[in-house]
Design brief:
alpha/beta; five-stranded parallel beta sheet
């Protein structure tokens, strides 16, 4: 009689040690494409585990902040090299726990590699500035200083990329870190922590506590020794995070929802626009904050676009992300699948025209996973809920428009402002879109997804609270400015009083 393999048991990483949760509770990490497959068992941490992690980070901070930034960078550079060698291994592990296709998880690990190399470079480029003083024999400059313990709460859709987007700039600036990854995808953050340990990161500098949001994430927000918080997730939870940080004036970075649009003008390369809309709408099963869940098409090419786009969506192969033939994987869990199903019904109730999809896939190869068909609604009104609210699944709403100004009004007529794209050959439209779209990211002749690590990432309105991830912009959140004046006049100089 065949026996099931013994599941691998993982532990928290606190002060350089791998430890079980103090309460002894655990959570299961299962494959969303086949829920019979148990990827691993992880700690279900609580406030006591978080407290231990924060204490370790606080204790490690004085020595780490005084470690020269180029020396901190050497550790990150070594970590990036290790990640390069394990890219395929970690990508396959990520597909098992998150579900997206292998090509996408390879890209996720590559983002972690890119960010780690980038921030290693910033170890020698944390530039401040000098300025001439208004008084004689006085030197003036501004330098970056670390903040302290950084509390990081990360989502499940980019389970190694986003932890690296937060942890690497925090570390290179001289902060210590406590990170709580999403309970659906703990293995990828475990792998990242293991790499940093092997690269020589001192004990306590990075700590990982696994568990759910209320029990493991909440205590990070309220712990008085956490100096700043960075959160990526839904706008609803982001509001809770912001409110929890507010009483102690704790700096808080929020990266939240999106309702992103692709605008297709009459003069667009239509085949390119269709490819972009398919990738933007159904990449990662639509489970991206940058997913193109809205497409607005000018009336002159609307019908042709709809016919071809619907055909492409209908032809997508849905299945296990480890299968090379698969083009779209499952939803992350039952809750997310039910959200998609709910919004499909909302679209029907709003009299949007369902052109393809609309159903859960649950027979044959899909029987044990959280699969949903690629779904397209057409002839939509921009004010419909399916065109206004974030679904975070493989559902795209297509809307016709007449003029460019109408397209801008549709694009800007939502509460989010992360990403937008326009397909056009008209340089005037392209530059007006860059100027007038109310989003943090604008693409011209490319879909709404695909950020590069050396440029700022983030949005406006209900998408974020003004901070940016990636690039040198990340350093602005994970450091604080210190202005230094050196007076070598050997006499009292009273600034403006003596400069009148």
């Amino acid at each position: 009689m065949a026996t099931s393999p013994v599941p691998q048991i993982f532990k928290n990483y606190i002060n350089g040690e791998w430890l079980e949760a103090r309460g002894g509770k655990t959570i299961e990490d299962r494959n969303p494409a086949n829920t019979d497959e148990l990827v691993g068992i992880f700690p279900a941490s609580d406030e006591s585990d978080v407290g231990a992690a924060v204490d370790a980070a606080k204790a490690a901070y004085p020595k780490w902040r005084l470690t020269p930034a180029p020396k901190r960078a050497e550790i990150l550079f070594h970590a990036a090299q290790v990640l390069v060698g394990r890219k395929e291994e970690y990508a396959r592990a990520m597909t098992r726990e998150m579900g997206k296709v292998l090509a996408e998880t390879r890209g996720d690990v590559q983002e972690a590699i890119d960010m780690t190399y980038l921030m290693a470079g910033e170890g020698r480029r944390q530039f401040g500035h000098t300025a001439p003083s208004e008084l004689p024999n006085k030197f003036a400059m501004a330098v970056r200083s670390p903040v302290g313990v950084a509390g990081l709460i990360t989502p499940w859709n980019f389970p190694m990329a986003i932890p690296s987007w937060k942890a690497m700039p925090a570390l290179i600036c001289g902060n210590t870190v406590v990170i709580k990854p999403a309970e659906d995808t703990p293995l990828s953050t475990y792998n990242l922590a293991q790499v940093l340990e092997e690269a020589g990161l001192p004990p306590g500098v990075l700590n990982v506590v696994f568990g759910d949001g209320p029990q493991a994430g909440g205590p990070i927000l309220t712990n008085p020794d956490v100096g700043l918080v960075s959160f990526t997730g839904s706008t609803e939870v982001g509001r809770i995070v912001n409110q929890a940080c507010a009483p102690s004036f704790k700096p808080c970075h929020l990266e939240m929802g999106g309702k992103n649009i692709i605008i297709v003008m009459d003069d667009a390369n239509l085949e390119l626009a269709i490819e972009g809309a398919v990738w933007g709408g159904f990449g990662t099963s639509g489970q991206r904050c940058t997913a193109a869940s809205r497409v607005a098409v000018q009336k002159g090419v609307y019908r042709e676009f709809v016919d071809k786009f619907v055909a492409r969506a209908k032809a997508l192969k849905v299945g296990d992300g480890l299968d090379p033939a698969t083009q779209m994987g499952p939803c992350i869990n039952e809750q997310q699948l039910n959200t998609v199903i709910k919004y499909v019904q909302i679209g029907k109730d709003e009299n949007a025209k369902l052109a393809t999809g609309g159903h859960r896939l649950q027979t044959g190869a899909h029987a044990r996973g959280w699969f949903h068909e690629p779904t397209v609604f057409v002839d939509c009104d921009p004010q419909m809920r399916i065109c206004q609210e974030e679904i975070f699944g493989p559902v795209v709403s297509v809307m016709p428009f007449g003029t460019f100004d109408e397209a801008l009004a549709i694009a800007n007529g939502v509460k989010y402002g992360l990403s937008a794209a326009i397909y056009t050959r008209n340089v005037n439209y392209a530059f007006r879109a860059q100027q007038d779209l109310e989003t943090g990211i604008v693409y011209v002749n490319a879909p709404t997804i695909g950020a590069e690590t050396h440029l700022p990432f983030g949005g406006t309105k209900n998408t974020g609270n003004g901070h940016r991830e990636a690039g040198i912009a990340a350093l602005d959140f994970y450091s604080q400015w210190k202005t230094v004046y050196v007076d070598y006049s050997d006499r009292l100089q009273r600034a403006q009083i003596d400069n009148a």
